[in-house]
Write a structure and sequence with these properties.
This protein is of the alpha/beta class. The chain is built from 13 helices and five strands. A five-stranded parallel β-sheet has the order 2-3-1-4-5, sandwiched between helices. α8 packs parallel to α13. The longest helix is centred in the C-terminal third of the chain and has 21 residues.
């Protein structure tokens, strides 16, 4: 099995723009990513090769069930000490299969829950790169609450489970999601800043939407990639700012709750 060179993991709180970033970066000719096909049999290359003859759905996919395979606790957290021979073999094989299937030299993945597993992933892939995409927590909360509502229950916890989520699940929905955003962003930042500086990059969604070209140039430099002019132009046309909805969606009391719970992190990233 050939060495896996600097795999890239996009992490952070869900609804922070990571899907858009993943979609744009997956267009890079050097990058292969998990798709709706590869998630079906991540460690069985003959099955992937056979399915590729008949399945045309190669859109970038989160492959959340693949990344959740070795989670056994009540949270989404996995640490370096949780790595086993089986998990190491599983993920190196899965990533190598993606690279082989799409004939690309580098791998990229987007799964927000992997923000809870950076030490785990780095123990498997020592030169892994992590991109933490942060978005105004109030906009994220509105989007997550909308997602909960579409699922039929605004009180039901959705996606990343940091430590403490069971207690926050009992809170009113606005406060519950605010605690989730704060905990996820804080955890990713604390773990990320403890990594070597050349393996962790923190970026803001708002900078992505304001100037996609400059944003992608910075991202590419961190990843050791180059973007063509065509790719830059395509990116600048495909990204739109969706931060204008939260102020109309929340009451004054709800905004006060959001600001109170998330105050430190909002100020840290320049949102207040």
């Amino acid at each position: 099995m050939s060495p896996i060179d600097r795999p890239i993991f996009i992490v952070g709180m869900p609804r922070s723009g990571s899907t858009a970033l993943h979609r744009v970066m997956a267009e890079h000719p050097a990058l292969a990513t998990t798709t709706h096909l590869t998630r079906k049999a991540p460690t069985c290359y003959p099955a992937l090769k056979l399915m590729a003859l008949f399945v045309r759905d190669h859109k970038p996919g989160e492959a959340g069930t693949m990344w959740d395979t070795f989670v056994t606790g009540d949270t989404d957290i996995l640490r370096a000490s949780d790595v086993t021979l089986a998990s190491r073999r599983y993920y190196t094989t899965a990533v190598a299969n993606v690279l082989r299937l799409y004939d690309r030299p580098r791998f990229i993945s987007k799964c927000p829950r992997n923000g809870m597993r950076m030490d785990f992933l780095r123990a498997i892939f020592p030169d892994a790169l992590f991109i933490h995409l942060v978005r105004d927590g109030r906009a994220v909360c509105r989007s997550v609450l909308e997602r909960r509502q579409r699922a039929g229950n605004p009180r039901r916890w959705w996606d990343v489970k940091p430590e403490g989520w069971r207690d926050w699940e009992k809170a009113e929905p606005v406060a519950s999601v605010a605690h989730q955003w704060r905990a996820v962003v804080r955890y990713v930042r604390e773990v990320g800043l403890a990594l070597p500086a050349d393996q962790f990059l923190e970026l803001r969604y708002e900078d992505f939407t304001r100037d996609p070209v400059a944003f992608l140039d910075r991202t590419a430099a961190f990843c050791g990639l180059d973007w063509s002019e065509e790719a830059r132009r395509a990116a600048s046309c495909s990204i739109e700012d969706r931060n204008d909805k939260w102020e109309k969606a929340f009451t004054a009391d709800e905004v006060a709750t959001l600001n109170a719970v998330m105050d430190d992190e909002l100020r840290c990233y320049g949102y207040r």
